[in-house]
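Supplementary Methods S3. Input chains for the assembly prediction are listed below.
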Amino acid sequence: MPYDPARHGPRRIVGPGFHERVFAMVRRVPAGAVTTYGDVAAALGSKGVARQVGYAMAALPEGSDVPWWRVVAAGGRLSLGADAADEQARRLRRDGVEVESQRVRGFAARRHVFGDAASPPG
DNA sequence: CGGCTGACGACCT
DNA sequence: GAGGTCGCCAGCC
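Predicted structure tokens for the full assembly:
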């Protein structure tokens, strides 16, 4: 566990600067679309931080307004554990995204593109 | 500043 | 399709 809010501090979304940017990007992903850790990382400027994007997701509190389930692994796969992946699949279906065998249907078509706007409109 | 951790990604066998 | 390895780098103590 890279960051355990239950032990390291209060469940506040805006903590580490990097996470803040990650959350902002993920919030830009509309329902029905999906993105990948690598894409978010690339949108933030460094494709190498794909991992850190995942850690940011892990640090999200349950009631956050960040659609973490729209972030999947490369190739449209659900890299989370089988159980967690199932939950993600459920949420994706609620968005109208089909998931089969831990993979997003028509991933290429549903893949969200973060224009060149590296920062949110806000 | 150093060591440890880890919702990833690409590659090889 | 499945299993193992290396590279990437932020965050925490």
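Confidence is low (pLDDT under 50) at residues 1-15, 118-122 of chain A. The two ends of chain A are 31 Å apart (CA to CA).
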